[in-house]
Amino acid sequence: MFSPYFSSENSSFKFILDILDGMDDWVRVVDRNNSVIFINRSMERDLGIYDLAGKKCYELMGCGSPCENCITDKAVFEGKSLKKEEVFNDRIFSVMCSPIVADDGNIYYAVEVLRDITKEKELERELIKQNMKLQHDLDMAKKLQMQLLPRDIKIPCLDFAYSYQPCDDLSGDMVNIFPIDKERVGIYIADVSGHGVSASMLTIFIISTLNKRIYSPSRALYRLFRQYNAGDFDKDSYITIFYGIYNTRTHVLTYSNAGHNCAPVVIGQNSVKRLYMPSIPISNWVDNPKYYDSTVHIKAGDKLFLYTDGVTDQWLEEPGKITSDNYILDLLRDKNIDLKTALDNICKYVYTRLERIGAKQKDDITMALVQPVQSKDC
Asked: In 3D, which of 317, 160, 309 has the Cα closest to residue 240?
């Protein structure tokens, strides 16, 4: 519908009119006095308005006075397109208003396009609601995961500290230490493929499934492998884990490895030993992997340093180079700082390196230090 302001005799005008009438969106043209001089067929049909004489733009929308935030006035007088949202008959509309510049450079009219976005807004609200629920679930899962980390660890004859810095809300890393009997202490560090919920669930699988009463780490890892393969995990999922059992009486660490390429390091005052042992991760890649036990003597004053590839990959080309990083070795040998401070300083070292090259943390950073203490009871 158009007012006497327009003439439909011109073929170009009729072509434009046909385009506007073919649109599902509502289109209207408003003059400087807020009078409506044109509405397209969709708006005419939906509103049931067939006479525009004297109609103001706000009257078409059922209002008795101009809108508080009238973008038409601004579009006309300021000469720029503006956008807002309006509610009409319980429907939500996106309103885009643009000035119509005449041949003489002046602006006498503005064109408004009103699009019904009610369904989109309902979907947006539902997505926000679902995201809030998901975030709440993630927060709960994060709290649970943090609760499963070692807390208030007091093990006779051993000092222990760890650092745990996830790159996401939930981590695929896990570190743990626990007493097995009066002489034996279990220690492991694990890295699960991926991040997020699925990775965190696998860390819980490790905690709940690893048999802490088997004195052979290789047998415990093989049993973990069998129980993993009893589940329905895909081939993209896997667990790397280094597991050791330390005897506080004999000072011997018996250890095994399932694909954890970050070989722990035993640091003495004048020696460095990587506990390298190649093997297959806990996965469904092979039917019958072989895991082996090995031993190393760790006396009082020595330190066992465990870490995941999130520590090394973010400043070294490969995990093996950690034993040639003098800064870290000096930190680990320093008798004047406690274990937690040493790990904190290594974290700062990694983050400073990331900041210097303009990179962000891309993987979980997890480390642990274990040190036998000198005591007559050990």
From this structure: 309
